[in-house]
Amino acid sequence: MESENPAASFFGGMLIEIMIACVLYGITTLQSFIYFQKYHNDAPSLKFMVATIWILETVHTAFCMQVVYSYLISNFGEFEYFLRINWGVGVTVITEVVISTLVQAFYVKRVWIMSNKATLLTAFIAFVTVCRIGFGIGSTILSYHFSEWLSFRAHESSLVTVSGGLGAAALVDVLVALTLSYYLTRGRNNWQRGSNSRINLIMLYAVNSGAITASASVLSVILYASQTHSLVFLGLVEIQGKLYANSFLGSLNARSHIRSKAANPAQYPSFEFSSNGGGFRGAAPQVVSVAENPCAVCFLGRVLMSWDVQPKVEVFQQTIVTNDMGEQENDFNMKNLKGGELV
C-alpha cells in the first residue's frame, strides 16, 4: 500500500486557499478600476490610500505565488523542504498586516465621526489596532528567526504573536461593527421614516464587513492550534488580507448607491390651472421641517460624512397647464428646470 503524499496534508489546503486569494485579488483589481473611474473628485489622500492598498495587494499576491512555487516546483520531491520556513512567508505576513491596519484605521475614523468624537472609545479601538501591528511584526521576525516550522510552532512566543495578532484583528472588527450599529440604531429614530432604509443599508455594510473578517481571524487561530502539521492556517491568513482590501474598496464603491438612496430632492407645491371651473387647484406635498429636529440633521450628516458620501441638493420646477377638456397643452415648454449641484 502506497504511503500518503505528505504534500497533500501539509500544503494541499494552503494551495486551494492561495487560489481563492488570487481570485479575490482579481476582484480587488476590478474594484480599484471602478473606483478610479467613478470617483474623480475624491480627496487625493483617499485616492493615494486606494492606490497603496492595490499595490500592496499586488506585492502580497506575488509573494504568495512565490511561496507556492518554492514549495511545489523549485523543491519538487524534496519532502524535507516542507519542514523549512520559506523566506517569502514573512513578506506575505507583514504585507497582510499593513493592509489590514490601513483598512482598520479607515474604519476607526468612521467610529470617530459616528460617535461624535468619542475620545475614549476611539482611542481604545486604535490601541487594539496598534497591538495588532506589534503582534504582526513579532510574527514576521519569528518567521526569520526560526528556520523550521516545528521549532516555530513549538516556541510559546509564536503562539502569542499569531493568536494575539489575529485575536486583536477580530476584536477591532467586532468593536467597529458593534459601535457603528449602535450609533446608527440610536440615531435613525430621530430621522424621518423614509431615511431608515438608507441607514439600514449602511448598517448592513458595516456588520457584514466586520463579521466576515472577524470570522476569518477566529478560524485562523483555531486552525493554527488544531492543524499542527498543516499550513492551512497560513492560507486563511492570506485570504484575510484580500477580504480587508475588498471590504474597504466595496464600501467606497457603494457610495454611489447610498448617495442615490440618500438623494431626496426638495419638493414644492404644484399648481394645476384650468379654465373649467374658473380657478386653479393647488396640492402641497408633505414636507418634514428639519428645524423641528436638528439632531436628525446632525446625525444624517455624520452618517454621510463617515461614508464619504457628499449629499446633493436638487431643485425642480414644473408648470402644468391644461385646457377646458383637462388635456395638457403642447405649446408650452415642459422641461424640468434643474438647479445646481452642491459637491
Tag the structure with descriptive keywords:
disordered C terminus; 10 helices; globular; 343 residues; mainly alpha; 3-stranded mixed β-sheet
Can you describe this structure?
The protein has ten helices and three strands, in the order αααααααααββαβ. By secondary structure, it is mainly alpha-helical. A three-stranded mixed beta sheet has the order 2-1-3, with no helix packed on it. Helix 3 runs parallel beside helix 6 (156-188). The longest helix is centred in the first third of the chain and has 33 residues, at 6-38. The relative contact order is 0.11.
> Overall pLDDT, averaged?
78
Oligomer: single chain
Instruction: Give the overall form.
Output: globular
Order of helices and strands: HHHHHHHHHEEHE
**How much strand?**
under 5%
Set out the fold topology:
Blueprint lengths: L5 H33 L5 H31 L12 H28 L4 H27 L3 H6 L1 H33 L7 H31 L5 H22 L1 H8 L7 E5 L4 E5 L10 H13 L13 E2 L22
Parallel strand pairs: 1-3
Antiparallel strand pairs: 1-2
Helix pairs in contact: 1-2, 1-8, 2-3, 2-8, 3-4, 3-6, 3-8, 3-10, 4-6, 6-7, 7-8
Summarize the structure.
With 343 residues, this protein is mainly alpha-helical. It is 68% helix and 3% strand.
